[in-house]
Amino acid sequence: MILVIGACGAPLVMRLYFIKGGKRIWLSCWLETVAWPINFIPLAISYFYRSKNKNNNTTKVILMTPRIFMATIGIGILQGFCNYSYAYGVAKLPVSTSGLLFAAQLAFTAFFAFIIVRMKFTSYSINAVFLLTIGAVVLALRSGGDQPEGESKKEYVLGFIMTLASAALTGLICPLVELIYKKAQQAITYTLVLEFQTVYCFVATVFSTIGMIINNDFQAIPREAKAFELGESRYYVVIVWSAIVLQFYFLGIIGVIYSASSLVSGILISLMVPVTEVLAVLLYGEKFSAEKGVSLALSLWGFASYFYGDYKEYKKRENNQSQETEMTDKTNCTP
Q1: How far apart (Å, rounded) are the C-alpha atoms in residues 260 and 131?
Q2: Are 264 and 53 in contact (CB under 8 A)?
Q3: Which of 82, 124, 264, 323 has a 20 to 30 A CA-CA distance from 218?
Q4: What is the spatial distance between Cα 251 and Cα 255, in angstroms, rounded to a whole number?
């Protein structure tokens, strides 16, 4: 649910900033992870609970090892580059276009998951990845048809490229996180996942803060707030909620990887694309061209293919377990 809120809300709130007069890409990049201190709330609750139950070995406080800490810093730097690419794409493209393009992260996630964590694929998951990738290609064939007014062709194309770059980096980061979980020489707990989230978002925030200082974005915030179409006070409301919703997105991703796998996180992110598409058309009056319709249909087909295959695998495992239980019972009953 946290991932659903973040995946749908983040691009819509970020795009609202640019539609109503915001122009600072580094600021938008900074907002993607600056709300990392929010994680201290559940962390504090977790630490308190575990310290009260310190006599129970299963609930003792476990901090991340130096090895995981260094790996987390590396993930944070990659996330910084990913955040800037994504912010640039949102600034230059309509939400419906950038959303469909970002759905290509599933293909990148599948590719890197196969190489990095040796993810096993079924015919259904391969079909899903193929269809979602073709959907992004269809959209790319007619790029420029929804180019925002007042924006040059060069900026639009660069926004297109940067969005695909952010999709590729996301596809790389998710399997790397899964690899860290698998290679960690300690138990992966709820607390450790929150620590991981806090550290790598802090590192990504430092990365974007340096960009903001170089670009003089901090000094520009008061001026931009006064010129914001919705008013100065609502300017700050928009950027605060952008930070909060985006933190939900990142927490949702690492939570799903922890609970399932990097491929499942990619599937769920792409699953939110149709919802975001509809919301962008309804809220911002964006055009819904034939190419977007085809891309959306292919995406939905891909979702259905993956989840149907996952359902069949689940039923197969369930049947095998039932058969094993029956065989065990018969063996135990044999005199």
Answers
A1: 22
A2: no
A3: 82
A4: 6
Cα–chain center distance at 144: 26
pLDDT of residue 83: 92
Q: What is the pLDDT of residue 150?
A: 66
Tokens of 103: 């759905």
Residues in the chain: 335
Residue 283's contacts (CB-CB under 8 Å, 6 or more residues apart) are 12
Convert 88-101 to b/e letters by CB count within 10 Å (16 or more is b).
bbbbbbbbbbbbbb
Give the Cβ contact number of residue 177 at 10 Å: 24
The dihedral of CA 236, 240, 241, 242: what is its sign? positive
Alpha carbon of 14 to those of 7, 41, 92, 242, 266: distances in Å?
12, 25, 11, 6, 21
Q: Are 281 and 100 spatial neighbours (Cβ–Cβ below 8 Å)? A: no
Burial class (CB in 10 A: 0-12, 13-18, 19+), 107: buried
* pLDDT for residue 328: 66
pLDDT at 58: 47
Q: State residue 59's pLDDT score.
A: 45
User: Which residue positions in the chain have pLDDT lower than 50?
Assistant: 58-59
Quote the pLDDT of residue 25. 92
The pLDDT value given to residue 305: 80
Q: Which residue has the tokens 């933190």?
A: 247
Q: How far is CA 323 from CA 164, 255, 319, 320, in A?
A: 46, 33, 6, 5
Residue 160 token pair: 């297109």
Residue whose token pair is 């924006």: 151
- Token readout for 58 is 């299963």
The closest of 242, 119, 231, 225 to 171, measured between CA atoms, is: 119
Residue 225 CA to residue 320 CA, distance in Å, equals: 61
pTM, whole model, 2 decimals? 0.79
Other CB atoms within 10 A of residue 52 CB:
10
12 and 95 Cβ atoms separated by less than 8 Å: yes
Closest CA to 171 of 86, 246, 242: 86
- Tell me the one-letter amino acid at 79: Q
